[in-house]
Amino acid sequence: MILRSLRVHNFGSLNPGAVIAGLADRFTLIEGTNGAGKSTLFTALCYALYQKHTSAGEQVQARIVPRGALVSPRVELDFEHDDRSWRIEKQWMRRKEAVLSEKIDGVYKTVAEADAADDRLRELLGSRAGRKLKPDPADRGIGEVLLVDQGRL
């Protein structure tokens, strides 16, 4: 899998959001000062890839909803997998949504929505169903080789 862009809206400390585009084929380094949102970007990436859009509850809300805000955190991720271009869009809490699209002839076309989008993405990535509270490294399948949580090296 090659990540191409990550768009985060109202997610954790990233309120109103952040966009990272033009990610390199081989290596991307994200740097910044303490509190800049690097770990939050990583959490958003993990939620987009491995967490069901229907996840809710106090622990999930505390982790992804900006303090004091009544918003629906949203993550959009463009990536390549098996020589095909994909986009996953997920939104949690108030307005739960998941849309998986494939880029065909230069246009993203919806392949699956809601639970079917979560399931299809999991199949693509070779991972298992996400847990209710937070994405667990064991849920990542081959993604565990590519994504390492802060403090686990």
What is the fold's blueprint, element by element?
Blueprint: E1 2-11, E2 14-20, H1 38-50, H2 58-64, E3 74-81, E4 84-91, E5 97-104, E6 107-113, H3 115-125, H4 143-146
Antiparallel strand pairs: 1-2, 1-3, 3-4, 4-5, 5-6
Report on the structure:
This protein is α+β, with helices and mostly antiparallel strands and 153 residues long. The chain is 23% helix and 31% strand. The chain contains four helices and six strands. The protein has helices at residues 38-50, 58-64, 115-125, 143-146, and strands at 2-11, 14-20, 74-81, 84-91, 97-104, 107-113. Strands 2-1-3-4-5-6 form a six-stranded antiparallel β-sheet, with helices on one face. The longest helix is centred in the first third of the chain and has 13 residues, at 38-50. The protein is globular. The chain starts with a strand and ends in a 7-residue tail after the last helix.
Low-confidence stretches: none
Structural class: alpha+beta
Count of discrete alpha- or pi-helical segments spanning 4 or more residues: 4
The portion of residues assigned to helices is 10-25%
Distance between the termini: 21 Å
Mean pLDDT figure: 85
What's the β-strand tally? 6
Q: How do the strands of the widest beta sheet line up side by side?
A: 2-1-3-4-5-6
Content of β-strand: 25-35%
The topology string of helices and strands comes to EEHHEEEEHH
What radius of gyration results from the CA coordinates? 15 Å
Biggest sheet overview: 6 strands, antiparallel
